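Let's sit down with a protein and look at its sequence and fold side by side. Please make up or recall a protein chain and show it to me in full. Label the sequence line and the structure token line clearly, so we can match residues to local backbone shapes. Go ahead whenever you are ready, and we will take it from there.
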Amino acid sequence: MRYGDIDGFGHYGVLDEDATGLLCHDCGWRGTHLGLHSWKAHGITAAAYRERHGLRRTKGLVAADLHERMSAGAAERLPAALVRARDPQRARAARLAQNRPVSAEAAADRDRRVRQLGRSTRKGTVIVCEECAVAFCPLRGAARRRFCSRSCASTATRRLTLQRRSQAEREA
């Protein structure tokens, strides 16, 4: 499907908003919180909805007025210096000046490449953690792993250190 093609009740890659709210591509519903609607009405996450309909991953699925209220609430909780320094329009202008627009096709292509990379970075072998006995599949670049996490490795190291100390005390 290409950007702008008819996609259910909307157009692929286009988030349709008017005075009554955002348009759901799946059922034609209009409201302020499309992400919540997609989960409750269609059982799909906001990320899956964006992917299905070619919307940018960075685009919020809430109406502009709700977004402003949410942003104002967040701004109250953030340090004042950070709020003053934040300038989304300047950041967008800088990104566009570098000739890096993010289209629905580019985002879908990037997502596909990342998913493919994620599949190929795991070894095809399953290892059982020596500490907790959980099976895991390590990354390709990892050296020989004996533990599933740093926590298990630390626990095993502490136990081994205590065993060596007690053995040294018994021998002394």
